[in-house]
Amino acid sequence: MTLNVVKGKFQWAKVTKKEQLTEDLWKMWLKPENKFDYKPGQYCTIGSGGIERAYSIASSPEEEQIELFIELVPPPDGNLTPLLNDLQVGDTVTMRLRAKGIFVIKPGFKNHVMVGTVTGIAPYVSMLRKHLKEEEFSNCNFYVLEGASYLDEFGYDEELSKFANNDNVVFETSISRPGEERNSTWSGFEGRVNNILEERLKEWGVNPKDTIVYACGHPGMIEDVNERLEDSEYTFLEERFWKD
Ligand SMILES: Cc1cc2nc3c(=O)[nH]c(=O)nc-3n(C[C@H](O)[C@H](O)[C@H](O)COP(=O)(O)OP(=O)(O)OC[C@H]3O[C@@H](n4cnc5c(N)ncnc54)[C@H](O)[C@@H]3O)c2cc1C
């Protein structure tokens, strides 16, 4: 199947920068032909070789380029990511003209708990880049809890740690494979984020009625968080990156 770049539906976007984090994880910046409007937390749909997929946007809407955080799903399962992985600066992808998604910040809560696995951190980076500066959210608290298998998969830890210099931002990470050589220097939390979330919520002392919990990324993590919070007064919002 070839994808026609039909005027009115798609535009071209040029790869302007690529930053490889690990063998199968990279950040990629795109410059679309036209201005691309979106809300923090929304996703864009990009394509190559006739295949299109959704990617949460890590940049803030004021930024000129669209920043994405992408994980390779190797063939035979992965279709688009092997193609995206081969792209070089100067290459182009198609981009649907409209951003989509309802995984955006919900005002009206005192506490915003953001749980993500690996690339599932992207929408929170966008939200924090934009909303931390806004008066509307100046009295809110943000708790970011990120999980990964390996310590080198926390793509935004420097930036999020800087945000956490603010009194109202907490950033915590946990790795799920502490016994492996690649994690030998790790000294932080251990275990899957869904397994430690309840303990962290207790530690932070947030009142469930005033708290929204966002979960993004791995469907297994989301399913489990959903079940754990089911009978509570927490409000829950999710973005699943694939189907289990
Ligand atoms: C709203 C939304 C936002 C998304 N944002 C991001 C993002 O910011 N970064 C990102 O890397 N991906 C994101 N994804 C996933 C992305 O759309 C693709 O599904 C993914 O990049 C794999 O594409 P593919 O064509 O290579 O593999 P596909 O042809 O889509 O097949 C992948 C198959 O492998 C399995 N799988 C294992 N690991 C993954 C994985 N990490 N992602 C997807 N499937 C997996 C699934 O069972 C799936 O059926 C998002 C998905 C949605 C719905």
Pattern of helices and strands: EEEEEHEEHEHEEHEHE
Q: What is the CA-based Rg, rounded?
A: 18 Å
Shape: globular
The amount of beta strand, in percent, is: 25-35%
> Can you tell me the CATH class of the largest domain?
Alpha Beta
The pLDDT mean sits at 96
Total DSSP helices? 5
Main beta-sheet strand count, sense and barrel state = 6 strands, antiparallel
Could you give the order of strands across the largest sheet? 4-3-6-1-2-5
Low-confidence stretches: none
Ligand names: flavin-adenine dinucleotide
CATH topology term of the largest domain: Rossmann fold
Alpha carbon gap, first and last residue: 26 Å
Percentage of residues in helical conformation: 10-25%
User: Which structural category fits the helices and strands?
Assistant: alpha/beta
Total strand segments: 12
